[in-house]
Write a structure and sequence with these properties.
Strand content: 35-45%
Radius of gyration: 21 Å
Mean pLDDT: 75
Shape: globular
Structural class: mainly beta
Low-confidence stretches: 362-393
Number of strands: 26
Largest sheet: 5 strands, antiparallel
């Protein structure tokens, strides 16, 4: 009987299965189900998968695409460099749950639901979920970040906007949820800055960073832009951190992580030649940042004919191959459907466009749209080696 195999032998047998088959393996028997979630087996399986990926010159990323979280492989040597491996479905009732946004920190995913009724922190490694209830109600304008303090206590930061988004005076609260106490508390924050709804927080070393600007009236002249950090240990926002550029209103700006303790920032001009630039930090802390030389600079007009969506521009970089992968949408006209597109951009004119399929959301992503959040904005998270075991088909 399979269930009678010694643990070492059972681990060896299970390690022979590809990650795409592990979910079916778990239904074989209770012992194999438990073993497949064991930490020592997970580590062995991850190490083997990493060795295989290095040989194949590829790595895995997690992508939120049309309300679902899936695992994709990236291998620039293949004719089709981006391939979907499968959907992560260990969330409760995953077939019925539409996810509108994901936030990654320390191997956990904070997921907001399309119907705004639920907030969940999900550990795909073991299939564990923690559902979080609000103090009052969740709102479609809420924004979130996931982080942890120096004691590794995980917390959720929530921006609470009480307004019809720029049609009424803004009343904003900041709340923080502690997993240790299972409770929310209101923070005393009176910001002199603003963060647009479309700009998501990025977690680095347990703290979250945003692209922010001075709080001025709509008719109040130019803005000053900067990075802003929330320190989950002090539970305070830090000082303004310098960007390696000064964008103009309407430019596409996005943040991405590089490894465990670096950050990349993308800026694309909103006018011709739609120049795209990416920098990578040499140091990033709640109170200080410094930047390396420019990582990539490309004029996008001959490649795409325009700029990426203001609310899109999710991206990541591969330092070794000197390329960036930017996720966006191609808006269909007439009877043409809207498509999810990945653009692979490198130095010396390297460019490849990958169609990821038709979008379930036909709402326009034009830059002038500010009235409601876009639930199908593409999000990408690079989890490195930890992703190998998370695929549940």
């Amino acid at each position: 009987m399979l269930s009678d195999l010694p643990k070492d032998l059972a681990e060896e047998v299970l390690s022979k299965f590809p990650v795409t088959s592990l979910r079916r393996v778990r239904f074989t028997c209770k012992k194999w189900n438990t073993l497949s979630k064991d930490g020592s087996f997970t580590r062995k399986h991850i190490d083997k998968e990493e060795a295989k990926k290095k040989q194949r010159k590829e790595f895995h990323v997690v992508m939120m695409l049309d309300f679902r979280v899936s695992l994709f492989s990236l291998n620039l040597l293949k004719p089709n460099p981006i391939e979907r491996l499968g959907q992560l479905i260990s969330l409760d009732d995953a077939d019925q749950v539409d996810i509108s946004n994901i936030f990654h920190c320390d191997g956990f995913l904070l997921c907001t639901m399309k119907d705004i009724s639920k907030l969940v922190v999900w550990n795909p490694c073991v299939g564990q979920t923690i559902w979080i209830n609000p103090r009052n109600n969740f709102s479609k304008w809420d924004r979130y970040a996931l982080g942890y303090d120096v004691m590794k206590n995980h917390k959720v930061l929530r921006f609470v906007d009480h307004c019809n988004y720029r049609t009424e005076p803004l009343l904003r609260e900041f709340e923080i949820y502690s997993f240790e106490s299972d409770s929310w508390k209101v923070l005393d924050v009176n910001p002199d800055w603003e963060i647009d709804f479309v700009h998501r927080g990025l977690s680095v070393d347990g703290n979250s960073y945003w692209f922010a600007r001075d709080k001025v009236s709509i008719w109040g002249g130019g803005h000053s832009y900067f990075l802003l950090c929330f320190d989950f240990t002090t539970e305070r926002f830090g000082p303004r951190l310098a960007l390696p550029f000064q964008p103009f209103f309407g430019d596409t700006v996005a943040l991405s992580s590089v490894g465990d303790n670096q950050i990349a920032v993308l800026c694309q001009r909103s006018s011709s030649p739609y120049t795209l630039k990416i920098w990578i930090s040499s140091k990033i802390e709640p109170n200080a940042v410094s930047w390396n030389k420019l990582f990539l600079k490309v004029d996008m007009k001959p490649l795409t004919g325009g700029s990426f969506s203001y609310s899109g521009g999710s991206f990541f970089v591969d330092e070794e191959k000197k390329v960036a992968v930017v996720l966006d949408k191609k808006i269909g006209g007439g009877f043409d459907p809207t498509r999810n597109i990945a653009y692979i951009i490198g130095k010396e004119g390297y460019f490849k466009k990958v169609d990821l399929g038709e979008s379930r959301n036909l709402t326009s992503l034009c830059k002038s749209t500010r009235k409601q959040p876009n639930p199908t904005r593409l999000c990408l998270v690079d989890f490195g080696c930890n992703i190998a075991f998370w695929l549940c088909l």
